[in-house]
Amino acid sequence: MLDIRDLTVRYHSMGRTTDAVNGISLRIDKGSFTGLVGESGSGKSTLMTALLGLLPPGTDVMGQILYKGADIIRMQESEMRDLRWKEISLVPQGAQNSFTPVMKIKRHIEEVLNVHSGKFGEDAEKEAARLLEDVGLDAGIKERYPHELSGGQKQRAAIALALACSPALLLADEPTTALDVIIQAEILELLSGLRKSKNLSIILVTHDLPLAAMVCDRLVVMKDGIIAETGTPSELVNDPRHPHTKDLVREMFWQRDKKNG
Amino acid sequence: MRDILKRKSVIMLICIFFAGFLGPMLISGHPSDVTGAPFARPLWWNAKLPLSSEYVVGNSGVEINWEKLPPEIFALNGRITADPEKEVRIIWSTPVGEKTLDTLTGSDLYWINMDGRDMIFKQKLGLPLIGKSAEHLFPMSGRYSLRTEGAMETELSLSLSGGREGLLGTDQRGRDVLTLLIFGIRTSLIVGISATLIASLLGLGLGLATGYIGGLFDAFVMRIVDVLLSIPTLPIMMVLAGLWGKGLWQLVLILSIFSWMGTARSVRALVLTVRESPWVEGLRVLGAKRGYILRRHLVPEAAPILLANIALGVPGAILAEAGLAFLGLSDPRLISWGRMLHEAHSFGAFTEGAWWLLIPPGLGIVALCLIFMDIGRFLEEKIDPRLGSGKNA
Amino acid sequence: MKNRWFWGRLLSSIGVLAAVLVLNFILFRVMPGDAVSTIIDPNFSPEAKDRLRELYGLDKPLLEQFFLYIKQMLTFSFGLSFLSRKPVWDELLSRLPGTLFLMATSMFLSSALGIWLGIKAALNRGKLAERIVLRAGAVTASFPGFFVQLVLIMLLARTFPIFPLRGSVSIPQPVGTLSVTLDYLWHMALPVLSLTLMGFGGWALYVRNLMVKALGEDFVLMARARGLSENRVVYGHAFRTILPPILTILLMSVPGLVSGAVITESVFSLHGVGTFLLEAVSGHDYPSAGAAFYMLALITVISNLLADVVYGLVDPRVRVGGRDQ
What we know:
The complex is a heterotrimer of chains A (261), B (393) and C (325). Chain B is an alpha+beta fold and 393 residues long. Chain B is built from 13 helices and eight strands. Chain B binds chain C through residues 223, 226-227, 229-236, 238-243, 315, 319, 322-323, 326-329, 341, 344-345, 350-351, 353, 355, 358-359, 362, 365-366, 369-370, 373, and chain C through 12, 15-16, 19-20, 23, 27, 31-32, 142-144, 146-147, 150-151, 153-154, 157-159, 165, 255, 258-259, 262-263, 266-267, 274, 277-278, 281-282, 284, 289, 292-293, 296-297, 300-301, 304.
């Protein structure tokens, strides 16, 4: 469904040039739950931004990103807009800032329904309520403003918003950072469940290998703009090949051992 | 801080300072002296208008070649001695004919004080009562002469005030605008700076006090600040100026009362942040007294903020003074740019098209405001990096 | 919850009004010394003075006088003017619409123009449009208003006689509602134009800064990520978010508007509360001056309260409490 071929993203800033993503190739199949694991600076966020066509102007992009056959990089902005949210949507890192402060939650959802799904008025409102219930939120949340919600609630609401137009691909960028452990688990369970019920493909971006290993059916490890290794969770955990993967796995076990005393 | 002296606005300010305080000493005469006709244009404007001229009229009279437009005022002063029995006539000869300006008998000494603007003069000569008589006395370019007949000694002086006078023209009374402009510098600077200084000191004091003492006192003063900020400033200043009197220092006081609030708030905010900082805590633990902390640490921290506030507050004070003066609520005897604009507005500058009464004082005010605002911005920029490297944790 | 916040603001406004009343009382009754001369024309006969003294309660103790004064102010019974011997309230009423019109139109026009320019500048960063706006903003802020107005009169009313030199209406007044309206607008054109010219710069600068900041926020990027059109993102999300601070400035500009109106009325010899105040103050007409000042302060307090209420309606974060993480 998504075929990334030899993608390079080059930033120019203050006279320096950085390749945030350097010649990576990746395939995402329909219905898969892929975990993109890497530390900050590994290029994973840049990759997400590139998938939505939201890279800042002046950024060089080379290679191809083929979504259902069409190259996202070469698309016009208007075509891109049709693609966004209807096909590919994003649950952003730090959902705290992703809502417009002066708009009610329901307005956020209704708006994308108006623009992309052609639903208006009462239809849209009912749909918004349903979406929020699907992610485990009380329907009353829709009348609230973003600042009234707790971290966990905002994350769920962001997921509901991301699913509003029934996209084929969901990008979840660090959806569990800054949330406490119980909520983390709930969110992951939610994503898993939704994937099955809506036949969604999900790319989960995180720095937390064990977390990704728990829910994803495939892991892609990134470091410094390149793909270090890919494989199933059990493959990577039991038999890491790349030195970076080895480090991550080692770290994972060390943490586990620390917890177990 | 040395580079402040290199800034253009500071250089201009220093020049203005010199012009304002040394200028009056160098200028001979008093600004309220009448130097020419009312509403005379600047020298460099419209060369067809004549300059002022004065002619000595002796026994043989005087002959004038007049090429330009008529003068503004025709005035003849002096004395004539004659035989009381004889008739003395003062004759004005123009290219189109002669006019007898006056016929005198019965005395041996006549004091002449003829002014062309006088109604009686106009009536005597059959000139229209409205309009400038000088225009009728100078119907065209050509040769003119003034002489006396039948007098023994003629000691007269004919002064023809021109339509052009001074570098910046004259006002409705005939006073030189450039002189007025220079004398007005003092007022703007003194009022602007002293009002702002007083307001800043007031603001500093109250800011420090409320920030440090806190509690009910703080709440009370802040309430007063809120109320004062909600009252429209110009109307209240108008009322106070009208009720208290229009003197210079009353004005300064009135301006100060309504400008301290901003400084107080900034200083108070500063005190609140600094008060909680670790190094002040440390000082307190070491036993430093409140007064010591205030004096040696808080005040120096506040100083740069104060400086910037002052520089930015002076334009406000200058504008406020100009505004009140423009409305007519300042001392009429005090020369200020606002007052000049008031007189221009109220005494017919528009009908005369006398732009030289408007532009110089107005631009002067604008210039001073821009200069102080530039200085203020410069100081603000200096402050910002300082706060970053400051002692605040 | 909305109510609690609203009553809070109302209480605060009443507090300010109370302070204004006290101030008025002190300024116009206590300070001039002889309270009598502040209400009763010194030229009245002694018998008339005594009767009026009783009528106005000036023989009563100060505190009672104060409460009487408050009652008078709240019922708009301002007494008679010294200069015209007519009821002050009638005079004020005839002048109020002019002043309000001037304030309202200049506020609306200068903010609308300024906001539009500010948004344009923020959207065209680095380009000529932005630079012009920034310059204009800095310059118009430092010009004394009445100077600009005087220059405008000289240029557009004398050198090129397009507009009238002074006054609110032509003398003699034209006949017919349309003619009267057009005549009034023609007279108000220069005053409103000058106030707008002087006011828009500050707005443009402020809004430009706000928009630049808003456009850099995460939620704007997210709005784009949701495939919303650029217009929707800029106006529906970014601009919508900076509305509350814009309203704050609207609120804070009211006292300045009042002062601006007073000066403008003077420059153009308009028939308004400002010129009324000036005449009263210059002529030591205490009843008129006190009433005019009170009205101006009242306008300020009411507009502040109104702006506060609208602010609350627009920014939910203010009237609905938030939940912390």
